[in-house]
């Protein structure tokens, strides 16, 4: 059962990453990050929000080892930490932080608890 849930959570990670990779304008707008003076933000969406999570999810499924899945958990933990710091220092919209941060925390908790 753990193996199946690891694969499903990895596929979810890949799906989230695909939004950033193939639809960076949509992703940026959803995250209130629409580019204004440069398209460098779109490049960042494709790289850090997109490709990073797509390849990480694919690699974990391919390697199929607990530590590979745990590494995705550490990545989501880092994202959640960044959201927490942003909540403290930047005062972003609370609802969006709770939604996106909640997904990150849930996935981090699964990957780490099930694979360490």
Task: Name the poorly predicted regions.
Answer: none
Question: What's the SSE pattern?
Answer: HHHHH
Q: What best-fitting shape do the alpha-carbon axes yield?
A: globular
Characterize the largest beta sheet: strand count, sense, and whether it forms a barrel. Answer: none
Mean pLDDT: 95
β-sheet strand percentage:
under 5%
What's the β-strand tally? 0
Summing up helix and strand content along with how strands pair, one would put the structural category as mainly alpha
Question: Helix count?
Answer: 5
Number of separate structural domains: 1
Helix content, binned percent: over 70%
How many angstroms separate the termini?
Answer: 16 Å
Radius of gyration: 14 Å
Describe the structure.
By secondary structure, the chain is mainly α. The chain has one domain (2-115). The chain is 84% helix and 0% strand. The chain has helices at residues 2-22, 24-30, 40-63, 66-89, 94-115. Helix 3 (40-63) packs antiparallel against helix 4. The protein is globular. The model has no long low-confidence stretch (mean pLDDT 95).
């Amino acid at each position: 059962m753990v193996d199946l849930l690891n694969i499903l959570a990895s596929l979810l990670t890949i799906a989230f990453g695909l939004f950033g990779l193939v639809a960076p304008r949509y992703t940026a707008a959803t995250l209130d990050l629409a580019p204004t003076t440069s398209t460098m933000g779109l490049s960042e969406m494709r790289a850090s929000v997109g490709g990073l999570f797509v390849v990480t999810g694919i690699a974990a499924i391919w390697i199929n080892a607990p530590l590979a899945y745990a590494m995705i958990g550490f990545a989501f933990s880092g994202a959640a930490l960044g959201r927490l710091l942003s909540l403290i220092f930047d005062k972003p919209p609370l609802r969006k932080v709770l939604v996106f941060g909640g997904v990150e925390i849930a996935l981090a908790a699964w990957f780490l608890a099930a694979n360490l």
